[in-house]
Write a structure and sequence with these properties.
This protein has a single domain (34-59, 79-217), classed as Rossmann fold (3-Layer(aba) Sandwich). It is 33% helix and 29% strand. A hairpin with a 2-residue loop joins strand 9 (211-216) and strand 10 (219-221). A six-stranded mixed sheet has the order 6-7-8-3-9-10, sandwiched between helices. The chain has a four-stranded antiparallel sheet with strand order 2-1-4-5, covered by helices on one side. The chain has helices at 48-55, 78-88, 104-114, 121-129, 145-157, 175-192, 203-206; strands spanning 4-17, 20-33, 37-41, 63-68, 71-72, 89-92, 163-167, 195-199, 211-216, 219-221. Bound molecules: adenosine-5'-triphosphate. Adenosine-5'-triphosphate (ATP) is lined by residues 15, 22, 24, 42, 44-50. Keywords: ATP-binding, Nucleotide-binding, Transport. This is ABC transporter related. One of its GO terms (cellular component) is transmembrane transporter complex.
């Protein structure tokens, strides 16, 4: 084993669909190294979100092994999963899961506090770079979809995670904002050695990542 942050070995996953079994991932092997950046593409329903959910511990596997930070997760209990997520994982999913009574700054500060971390100049930098300066004291429920997406991105990056899982992180953004987000993500990967696995349908966004994985019919092609 090398310095992978994520290693999947012979992972299969499927779901029962009525009386049929639908195989989504078929004997997948993949490695994501420190500071690796990967664009994950594939047709709708090919299993991209399922793969992210497995790596984040939201879907469990019965076949194959998942190693995170060189540790085999098959023996992990809830405690280890929450510790890994708090300390090392940033997630931007299609639903932003923001805390709606709170304002922008408090949403970011709340997730830092969960991990006993303080607000740092990096957080101010994120707010500025993501164009959230003017709305930072506004309740997130009053923001547009694109603004909420940028808050979700700031929150996911605030603790400089080792691994960022992002599902269409620029889906609600216009081209300029999308490019700014991609520039930020690449900067983060370089500065903090963060590995990024990002689902995207945009070839412009995919071009910011070093590698590309295409998922189709249960298999990953690089
Ligand atoms: N919890 C679940 N129970 C049953 N089937 C599921 C579950 N999660 C995913 N699936 C099925 O697994 C397949 C892959 O879904 P997934 O959401 O991972 O695809 P995707 O590539 O992310 O799609 P999209 O690009 O449309 O978001 C789909 O056929 C979906 O219906």
């Amino acid at each position: 084993m090398g310095s992978e942050i994520v290693w999947l070995s012979r992972v299969s996953k499927g779901f029962n669909d009525g009386d049929k079994y639908h195989q989504v991932l078929d004997d997948i092997n993949l490695r994501l190294g420190t500071a690796d950046t990967v664009a994950l593409t594939g047709p709708s329903g090919s299993g991209k979100s399922t793969l992210l959910n497995i790596i984040g511990g939201f879907e469990f596997i019965k076949q194959g092994q998942l190693y995170l930070n060189s540790s085999n997760t098959s023996s992990w209990q809830d405690k280890q999963w929450s510790q890994f997520r708090r300390q090392h994982l940033g997630m931007v999913f299609q639903q932003f899961n923001l805390l709606t009574p709170l304002n922008v700054k408090d949403n970011i500060a709340f997730s830092l506090r969960l991990n006993q971390q303080q607000w740092t100049p990096w957080c101010d930098y994120l707010i500025e770079q993501l164009g959230l300066e003017e709305v930072k004291h506004r309740s997130v429920e009053t923001l547009s979809g694109g603004q909420q997406q940028r808050v979700a991105i700031a929150r996911a990056l605030a603790h400089k995670p080792k691994l960022l899982l992002a599902d269409e992180p620029t889906g609600n953004l216009d081209e300029k904002a999308g490019q700014q987000v991609m520039t930020l993500l690449t900067l983060l990967a370089r500065e903090s050695n963060t590995a990024i696995l990002m689902v995207t349908h945009s070839s412009e966004c995919a071009a910011f990542m070093k590698r590309r994985w295409h998922l189709e019919k249960g298999k990953i092609h690089e």
